[in-house]
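Can anyone check this?
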Amino acid sequence: MTKSGVQPDAYTCNTLIHGLCTTGQVGRALQLKNNMLKWNCRPDVVSCNVIIDTLCKGGLLDEALVLFSEMLHDFNVVSDVFAYNTLINGFGNSGRLKEAKRLFDEMVSRGISANVTTYTSLIHCHCLHGQQKEARRYFDEMMDRRISPDVVTFGVLIDSHCKDGMTEDAWGLFKLMDEINIQPNQITYNSMMDGLCLVGRLQDAVKLFDSMVDRGLKPTESNYSVLINGYCKKRKVDEAMRLFKKMGQNGLKPTTVSYSIVLAGLYRDGRVGTARNLFNEMLSFGLSPSIITYGIVLDGYCKNGKLEEAIELFESMEGTAGISANEYMYAIIIHALFRAGKLEDARKLFNEIPSKGVVPDVVTYSTMINGVLVYQMLEHMIFSFRDFL
């Protein structure tokens, strides 16, 4: 176009900027934005917003703020709520809450009305950084301003409250959704069910699951997994297994996560044979165990006196599954070796950790120190007993 003497207009440039940002070429998008002036067209709110959004999502917050300032002062572009929402969300999620609040106050002072996205972003970032009271303050403020929260807003608060053990507060919000005719979705139900399970209210979580089904919402794999985990932690493994099978009967394929949850419950209950069969079933279905799954199986073997099987799996993991042992797995095996009285094997395994590219953490060191001390105490007691005899 330019070689032919045809000058691009704002629409053409905006289309290209959007395409470049979508494909991650934000540097070229910025270059194109800078060339717009020599083509007698100025960047507008559309072109600036797309680049600001891409910069924020890429963690380049200061660069986004510079462009936002240029937009206001150099290009005389009237900012809109989208640009502010993007910046507030970016700064808030990265922990720069003071700057997020400053942008919010600046937006209000410019006469730009906050919307549900603005408040949801503020609520989310405060929840993300453990500031529940401040998050609730913004929620109450939006209600006072008659800005109706949506299912995402409620979901953020409910999930955060549940994870912080504020189950009653979360339950109050869940009931409020009904009162203002906002239908919870499977994600909202999942958060609330998980919160109830965390405080031991398994039966209430089951009732909530049933009410979700009664409302016509089809349970997801995550919904089932939350309840299965709740049953396993209550040592109700048979109920967990029944629900696990029901999930498959209802057309949902269990994932590595759901298999891992059931495996942990089975090992906790000492049902090693059933767990072994389930692990093999997972492999036969083409599911690749994660590093968490392998950790559960190793821990289960060790705690149930199956040290040889644990070591065999530990040594074969990298070759068969391409998974390298982490510090947690080393700690599991080292602890089991000490319990079996195999001090030298534990020392040997501990000494090989650095050569595997693994950095021992405090748990690994503590396991080793505790094992050596206990082993030496036992030796001392045995020698003292022999001297006494």
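Reply from J.R.: I decoded it. The radius of gyration is 28 Å.
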